[in-house]
Amino acid sequence: MSDVAPADELRELTRQLRAQLRRHVALGAWAAPGGPTAVYAGAAVAADHAAEPAAAAAEAAEVAVDDAGPAEAFESAMARSAAEPAPREWLETRPPSRELFAGPKQAELIPLGRRTLAQIREDLGECTRCKLHTTRRKIVFGVGAEDAPIMFVGEAPGEQEDKRGEPFVGPAGELLDKMIEAMGWTRQSVYIANTTKCRPPGNRNPQPDELAQCTPFLDAQIRAIAPRIIVTLGRPAANHVLGRDAPISALRGKFHDRAGVKVMPTFHPAYLLREPEKKKDTWSDLKQVIAELERLGIKPPRPPRG
After folding, report:
1. Dist. CA 245–CA 239, nearest whole Å
2. How confident is the model over 48-106, as pLDDT tens digits?
3. Which residue has the higher pLDDT, 253 or 101?
4. Which end of the chain has fewer beta carbons closer than 10 Å to its terminal beta carbon, N or C?
5. Domain ranges of the chain
6. Given the DSSP bridges, would you call strands 229-233 and 143-144 parallel, antiparallel or unpaired?
7. Does domain 113-295 have CATH number 3.30.1330.60?
């Protein structure tokens, strides 16, 4: 048996635990055990806030040793930590890194973890976070399967989408449906979203402040769905998702990485309606997606065409 008193042994253990947590913080840890964390979708929140619950538990356990038995004190402190959520921080963060979404500074954080699409939609509410709410008709949240292996992300909604509140429902949407069906999937078995949830007036490109307010919600959708592959449609969507500034001709035709998720940029269906000769290149991109899913053991509901 050890000659060390149980209380002294517990103090040493909690000291080591506290030191380990501080090492994780110094290395940029996102979270530590002790409750859900507040994370900005697209950028890391200061990690010391995420680690506070467990660190506090360690300190509480050390203080409580003198007032209770060692085991009871430690279990009580850790239980309190698990029951208390991490503080909801509203901090101005740096722009997201290259692996995450690019965008200007913005002050709003949302508690994430891996939330459901229904929870994300509830968080979005009848959004008034940017000026687009003054001209939109309906919010265009997204459509499809919550466990879809493929996610399609286009630029901002257009006129038809604004009327119906659903992405890709005009002529470009009809072509996208045909592209998805040619891959062996359906609109219901993939997930389709846009970089912003509201239509910009006159179908102009979204402005940086508008993208910044929508980025956390698109990122949260990606976290909820956890797709194996994201197909971006058009240059704006590709650059936004990849944090790049490059022409679509330089991006398409090969996979890119976004925080461990493969991204295949390709042409927007609206562009294909104007330049039908580019459909062949687009199908070549989509065949790479089909092959990669097959390599991962993911088969579509129906055999792909061609």
Report:
1. 6
2. 334 444 444 444 444 444 444 545 554 554 454 444 443 333 223 333 333 333 444 34
3. 253
4. N
5. 6-83, 113-295
6. unpaired
7. no
